[in-house]
Amino acid sequence: MTTLLRGIGVGTGSVAGPVAWMAPAPALPAPRPVGDPSAEAAAVRAALAAVAADLEERATRATGTGAEVLAAQAMMAADPALAEQAATLAANGADGPHALATTFDGFRAALLAAGGYFAERAADLDDLRDRAVARLLGLPMPGLPDPGHPYVLVAEDLAPADTALLDPEQVLALVTLRGGPTSHTAILAKALGLPAVVGCADAAELANGRQVLVRGAEGVVEPDPAPEAIALAARRQRERRERTAAVHGPGRTADGHRVALLVNLGAPHELSGAAAADSEGVGLFRTEFLFLDRAQAPSLAEQTAAYREVFDAFAGRRVVVRTLDAGADKPLPFATAPDEENPALGIRGLRTAGRAPQLLETQLAAVAAAARQSGAEVWVMAPMVSVPREAAWFAARVREHGLPLAGAMVEVPAAALRAERLAEVCDFLSIGTNDLAQYTFAADRTLGSLAELLDPWQPALLDLVAATARAGGEYGRPVGVCGEAAADPALALVLVGLGVTSLSVAPSCLAEVRAALAGHTLEQCREFAESALAAVDGRAARDAVLSRL
């Protein structure tokens, strides 16, 4: 019997195809003596400049998120500090490849130490290092294979420079040895609607050309599948597409129970696609894009104009604004301290208002001004609320600005355990499953080796979701989920069974979640939830529910 390879499922559906590995990175040669250090330094600078130019050119051929990712990588490659440090090492006698490797390793260590979002970008630096070394050595660039037929892409991890131009007509599914449920690969798979399995270390045994069946929902890769298994997967894929195409409009279960289906929004280029989606509004409007990569906070007028654009695009629909989530993986020179030893557990989210109160006051004033000028139904929530006192204070500030609906995000166990106190003082609650999982299991969400702990199917995490939803129900408060968990159609059924009233996902995931709800009654959702809660771990919870679907 073929041994199944297991990881974390982050896409939907199942598909079979031959394996094709990502082209490997160039091996670092043995150190060599340098005859002309100044020429070596110039070659290092030229290699970095060439990599930046190549990425910039790729950005012009990409669209949407891909273009933005490539442009950001080009900026990293063109960083003067990077070039200066590598060139200095070469000028002092190091050969070019080792000067580049040493420099990138230093920058990488700094990102890992920063944690959170920055740690997730460490793989981007690895890709830039490999490209620069290949350029310097005159070797082919590492990247996507081109076997001449559709394939299942297998890699240790995927870099944005490659995946931004990935062709879903050629790439049938994604499998990575590393990564977790919030990794770049996971986000890409959802955006493209591809089955994917990440954190699948045993996939290292797969050879090019070997036939595999990738079962995204289950987090399983089946080598050498039987023809019957392939035929069954193809039939289910056809049925899945037919189901999703047949259901439209507001979310509801088969027996008519309403579940609001919303989209997540985090950058200006996402606005048109999000507004065009068949949704009931925005469940998570991340406002950090206005504050990042600048020395001073945006003005009241600038913020008002940006919020007004979003509100106008969703006139007549709900827009849930998350106030600035600064700190931890999103440090800001005007709001966060540079010397926090553990920023993920430091002054972040709503706590930032204690250090820089004017940031919150200006933002609330801007949101209120934009809301008055638009037809959107604006809700406002605070990130990283820990205790009821914080929620009450925030709700009072929101209402003093004339905004009628104030909420709190539940992202730490303390908030979930005292959710009834939060529900007393707030108008709604929103669960961020990504951070809630990280803090519940004391597991850095950037570590692929801990991906199993971060599986949103983990019963302990679902216990906290259930407690929050139960508290909201007691006070008649809506309780939404805006983390990655909401995008899994099977898990969405469990969340609804736990009492969640809204789900906010990437626009590309809406149709499948809507179809899953339409195909099951509320009572069935509750039965699925009971099965998941009774399981011993995330894998058992997923298997228990999928076996009943």
Question: Which helices and strands, and how do they pair?
Answer:
Blueprint: E1 5-6, E2 8-9, E3 14-21, H1 37-61, H2 64-77, H3 80-91, H4 96-114, H5 116-120, H6 122-137, E4 151-155, H7 160-163, E5 171-176, H8 184-192, E6 196-198, E7 211-215, E8 220-223, H9 227-246, E9 260-265, H10 271-276, E10 281-286, H11 300-313, E11 318-322, H12 352-355, H13 357-372, E12 377-382, H14 388-400, E13 406-410, H15 413-417, H16 419-425, E14 428-431, H17 433-440, H18 459-475, E15 479-481, H19 489-498, E16 502-505, H20 510-518, H21 522-534, H22 538-546
Parallel strand pairs: 3-4, 4-5, 5-6, 9-10, 9-16, 10-11, 11-12, 12-13, 13-14, 14-15, 15-16
Antiparallel strand pairs: 1-8, 2-6, 3-7, 7-8
Helix pairs in contact: 1-2, 1-3, 1-4, 1-6, 3-4, 4-6, 9-20, 11-13, 14-16, 16-18, 19-20, 19-21, 21-22
